[in-house]
Amino acid sequence: MNQVNLELNDLLTAVNMISYGLIVICAAAGAAQPFLKGEKNFSGIKYFVDFVTSCAAGFIVFLLLRSADVSWEWNAASCGVSAYFGLKIMNTLYFVVTGKFKLTFQEKGGANGN
């Protein structure tokens, strides 16, 4: 396995700047989604917290994929998706990692299972 050394100059290339911009745009859109759909009443603090955690999720994925030497196309796409889902995906991963993720199945239908 190749060891990848990251330096500040490696993080300031044009492709990485595009990834950072994509992270910010997707984080802003993902944080605004519940407010635009009408699921929640708008709160500036909630929006800011969702935006910051979405940016953090996107940047964490960026660093993980960058250190794994994944191609820049997959890196940018994965960063955008993770930034868009942000807090939701971080909570899901937390529950999966800690073993607290439980799936519940509800039986659909009546007493005879129809």
Would you summarize the structure shown here?
This protein has three helices and no strands.
Structure description:
The chain is an all-alpha fold. The protein has helices at residues 14-37, 44-67, 72-98. The radius of gyration is 18 Å and the shape is globular. The mean pLDDT is 79.
**Helical stretch tally:** 3
List the helices and strands in order: HHH
**Biggest sheet record:** none
Termini gap: 54 Å
Instruction: Report the principal-axis shape.
Output: globular
Low-confidence runs (pLDDT<50, min 5 residues)?
A: none
Helix fraction by DSSP (H/I, runs of at least 4): 55-70%
**Fraction in beta strands:** under 5%
Structural class: mainly alpha
User: pLDDT average, as an integer?
Assistant: 79
* Count of β-strands: 0
Cα-based radius of gyration, to the nearest Å: 18 Å
